[in-house]
Structure formats: structure tokens, C-alpha cells
Amino acid sequence: MSTFKFLFPSGTSMSRNLKDKYDNVNPRRAHTIMSAEDAASGRKSYWGELEITGSIRNVSPSLWQLTHLTSLYLNDNCLSRIPPDIAMLVNLRSLDLSKNKLRSLPAELGELINLRELLLSHNHLRVLPYELGKLFQLHVLGLQGNPLNKEILSLYGETNGTHKLLTYMLDSLTGKSFVETFFSR
């Protein structure tokens, strides 16, 4: 069963079963979509975070049109691919694709230049697109539990591994050698 997780404003009526389902929302990701006063006044809702879980195999193409999103949590599903259209989510700062069945990632992920957190743990990834090297603001990169090639794992496992890995990927994308870049600093 699939779920969208939101924290509803107090006073919102819903069935007991539905209410119970939302009582255990992760507080880090719980947000009020709209206050009761705003809803009563006819205001439109604006929310920046969305979590979709529940063994989802595919997501609607309309998801990629939610360009206002700053955080997208698609973890704990059965996604086997992410379409290039993900690049339309230009405001994303946090993307969690962990615990899916991804074997590859679209190069277009490198266009999400506002990303600060990219969680890809526990998938089936062997390689990563070099375009990820363009994610200059990325501070957190979760890769644990993937059968990545030795070169990626070696760089990632070093001190400051995320930065070294992203530098290597950018250099590979531009044709510059990692050694050349690393020692020219």
C-alpha cells in the first residue's frame, strides 16, 4: 500500500484509520500544509517537501512538474529507474532515493545544482554518472550498500571522500585528470 505523508492541520476531519496512519510521521519531515485559517480564507497551499513510500514501482510523470519542491523522499520503494525529467526539480536540496532497486541513475541528476543531500544507499548501483561532479553544494552523499566499482568505493571511503569523489567525477566529465586537479590546489 502506498502512502503520501503529510501532517494535517488540527481540526481537519479524517477517518480514524487514516488519522492513525499519520500519527507516526517522522518529525523531521512533518509539515503543516496549510493552517486552518488559511484554508478557511481560500488560500492555496504551498509545500516544499514530499515523501512517497510503500513499494512504489513507478511515479507519475506529473511528479516532475512539482518544481517548488525542496525535498523529495522516494526511499523504501521498488523504483528501478528515475527518468531524466527529474532535472525539472531545480529547487531540490534533499533527495532520498535509498532502499530502491535502482541499477543506474540519469546523467540529468547533475543538473540539480542546489542539492545538498543525495541519499542513494541500498540500491543496485555499480557506477555513478560523471555529471554528479557538477553538484558543488552537495554535503551529504549516501552510497552505502551498493555494489559500486572499486574506484568509486576507494575514493568515497577516504577522508573527505564525498568531495574527492565529486572532484574525480567532474574531472572525468571535463577530461581533466584527478591527479592534475588534486595536486594543483
From TrEMBL:
SMART domains: LRR_TYP. It comes from the Eukaryota. The keyword Repeat applies. InterPro entries: Leu-rich_rpt, Leu-rich_rpt_4, Leu-rich_rpt_typical-subtyp, LRR_dom_sf, LRR_domain-containing. Pfam families: LRR_1, LRR_4. One of its GO terms (cellular component) is cytoplasm. Coiled coil: none annotated. Keywords: Leucine-rich repeat, Repeat. PANTHER family: LEUCINE-RICH REPEAT-CONTAINING PROTEIN (PTHR48051:SF54), PTHR48051. This is CCR4-NOT transcription complex subunit 6-like. It comes from Frankliniella fusca.
